[in-house]
Design a protein that fits this description.
393 residues, mainly beta, 20-stranded mixed beta sheet
């Protein structure tokens, strides 16, 4: 077995400019990279915000004669500035594109800016009890419009959509599964072969949580998107105290595709915040498994592992093309792991795009990239080549 590993711990870089909202404004976070090769101008950090959100910029450059230019040559209003910090307002009408700081010592590198809202929910508004209980298989389109307790595995069949309305709290009975099946036979889980539409709003999130009095990570199984489910969407949700907050799994099931979106969610106090795992195998006919969801604008906080992007194969090809952008990964043991492992006749292609994310205070690794495979000459290969751009460590 040969193993190649690249890890990114916290890096101390002197020059950077970071954006975040003041408490009175819309939420945004530090979301990009630093050009440490320059010593004459600050390097910009990507932000995502809506005008007229107020954002704060931090820089080590001692040049108070500064202008911040947003896309379309729009000049930001600077309300305060010191040698180490300035507060500016996103110009009305600012669109997507590069932002540049102009100083007497020179211009900074351009850094991407996206107009939008990167807010994520907390537990304000979470339910305290439930109106109904449920478990078992969902065979026709169903809507949950009131708080619900899941007492065992809920399985959404292929071709069926489960809709969870904004403001609903979905409780899971802790360490209990009256269906005694699924990935964890002793914990309730929500398994999606069809589609899950759980799209909350900034003011009315959707909550997935444990019903335990004393909550702990792993109280319930998780939200598991399965093979050939490609339309699921989770937005403005709080997902906590699960083994796997959200999983995209196609394991030993032959060829297939996994897709969907997780956006503007908070995933916290789980063993895994997000776990994307593709593996064909000989017994299931091999073939190609493709995993390519969008993971964007999420706060992934205080999990054992924040995001895991995993491809393994002993027969067939496992591919990961996920887009992971504009996320905050903070206070996890491992912020993100990208892993490929093969043996025999397996191929793993792990090519995710890791763009404009912020890694803060993850205790073991911020970003851990691992490729391993058989050295027996059988033809297995692990190709782990993520695109890692504009991230802040």
């Amino acid at each position: 077995m040969r193993t190649y590993r690249i890890t990114c711990l916290t890096l101390a870089i002197a020059l950077f400019l970071s954006f975040w909202h003041s408490p009175q404004a819309l939420h945004a976070e530090t979301l990009a990279t630093v050009d440490s090769s320059r010593d004459d101008a600050a390097s910009l950090i990507t932000a995502e915000a809506k005008a007229p959100a107020e954002v704060k910029a931090t820089t080590a450059v001692s040049d108070l004669n500064t202008a911040v230019i947003f896309p379309d040559d729009q000049l930001a209003s600077i309300s305060s500035i010191t040698a180490t910090e300035m507060t500016v307002t996103v110009p009305t009408g600012a669109g997507d594109g590069d932002v540049v700081a102009q100083m007497g010592t020179g211009d900074s590198n351009g850094s991407p800016f996206a107009a939008g809202d990167s807010s994520t929910p907390d537990d304000t508004g979470i339910g305290t009890t439930w109106a109904i209980t449920t478990s078992g298989t969902i065979t026709s389109d169903t809507t949950w419009n009131q708080d619900v307790l899941v007492t065992g595995d809920v399985t959404v069949n292929s071709g069926v959509t489960l809709t969870v309305e904004p403001g609903v709290t979905v409780f899971f009975a802790p360490h209990s599964d009256d269906q005694a099946g699924g990935r964890w036979s002793d914990r309730a889980e929500l398994t999606i072969w069809g589609a899950l539409m759980a799209e909350g709003a900034a003011t009315t999130p959707i909550y997935f949580t444990s019903a335990a009095t004393q909550t702990l990570p792993g109280d319930w199984g998780g939200i598991i998107i399965r093979k050939n489910s490609t339309q699921s969407s989770l937005k403005y949700g709080l997902i906590q105290y699960a083994e796997t907050g959200v999983g995209f799994f196609s394991v030993d099931e032959g060829p297939g595709t996994l897709s969907g979106a997780v956006a503007n969610c908070t995933l916290r106090h789980n063993a895994y915040g997000l776990h994307l795992y593709g593996r064909p195998e000989y017994g299931s006919g091999g073939g190609t498994v493709v995993v390519d969801p969008l993971i964007a604008n999420n706060s992934i906080i205080s999990n054992t592992q924040g995001i895991v992007l995993r491809t393994t194969s002993g027969y067939g090809t496992a591919q990961n093309y996920a887009t992971v952008q504009n996320n905050i990964l903070r206070d996890n043991e491992i912020g993100m792991q990208i892993r490929g492992n093969t043996w025999w006749l397996g191929h793993a292609d792990n090519y995710p795009e890791i763009v404009n994310n912020t890694f803060i205070d993850n205790t073991t690794y911020n970003l851990d990239i691992v490729a391993s495979g058989s050295s027996d000459g059988s033809g297995a290969d692990s190709d782990v080549r993520p695109t890692v751009e504009n991230n802040l460590f």
